[in-house]
Amino acid sequence: MQINITGHHLEITPFIRDFANEKLSRLEKHFNHGITSVDLIFEIEKLQQIAKATICIPGTKIHAESKSEDLYAAIDGLVDKLDRQLKHHKEKLYTSS
Q: What are the structural domains, with CATH classification, of the chain?
């Protein structure tokens, strides 16, 4: 899984990068069909920390966004949303087969 991390109006520190990589590794456990790439964008907007992601998996792309006053909480919320969407997509794959 290739992870691209971009920061708008903030510097991506090694701690942020490691935290995001650790949280995203959880997604691979739930979706074994192969996540091709993940594009993460972190932004600051009016005292809100915003984490956005696009996950490329075979056949589709999944988007999610999370906002919080704390960037680490925004990343946690983002990974939770992505996890739910991946589980839903996986269920659709198995029920349509």
A: 2-96 (3.30.160.100)
Q: Could you give the C-alpha distances from 53 to 15, 56, 94, 95, 96, in angstroms and in order? A: 18, 10, 25, 26, 26
Residue the block writes with tokens 């919080």: 68
Measured distance CA(21)–CA(60) in Å, rounded: 22
d(CA 56, CA 41): 15
| Predicted confidence (pLDDT) per residue in 37-90, tens digit | 999 999 999 889 999 999 998 888 999 999 999 999 999 999 999 999 988 888
Q: Which of 82, 90, 88 is nearest to 38 (CA)?
A: 82
DSSP string, 29-73: HH-TT---EEEEEEEEETTEEEEEEEEEETTEEEEEEEEESSHHH
Cβ neighbours of 55 (radius 10 Å): 23
